[in-house]
Fold this protein.
Amino acid sequence: QSALTQPASVSGSPGQSITISCTGTSSDVGGYKYVSWYQQYPGKAPKVMIYDVSFRPSGVSNRFSGSKSGNTASLTISGLQAEDEAEYYCASYTSSSTRVFGSGTKVTVL
Amino acid sequence: QVQLVESGGGVVQPGRSLRLSCAASGFTFGSYGMHWVRQAPDKGLEWVAVISYDAINKYYVDSMKGRFTISRDNSKNTLYLQMNSLRPDDTAVYYCARELEGFDNWGQGTLVTVSS
């Protein structure tokens, strides 16, 4: 049950778009439509931004979008804003009925 | 509104046990699967365990299987995590989370510190 692989950091200027990848295997990301993404500020609980690969919960900005191709899921943040600076984690259902999180990506707004 | 409140954390010596609780309110607790997720200091999120709405199915991350036990009391709207044989690397903030649209609601977390 190794953590899903995410880049340690991604940065962009305000207004730009960035994409965070989340790579797993056919036993997790590639095998199910149950990938979700979380935003976490320091000292705070995570907040779901995307669920079931590409669905946005009520109240989450439409600047956040999700997709998946093969064993890799992606989170795209368009129109980057200062408030988007946070840690982002992906998570997936697995073939063992467990869940697994990604290693986390620090997003920096330049 | 949905509320999850963890309790039971604290400082514990290696090898000892601790039971965490998560009190739920604002929704029909007995209709949802519930999870424990932990986060070591300055580290990433680590999924710990899940229990089905009816407590029949329970799954754990391999590294905690046999030491940790997830349970629930739907009559008390409470989720539990029994942690035995605690080790220093179990030091973390432990969150409970509801699963519906992803982990859509989280508690504020309770800090467990394993140290002599």
About this structure: The longest strand of chain B covers residues 92-100. The two ends of chain B are 40 Å apart (CA to CA). Chain B has no helices and eleven strands.
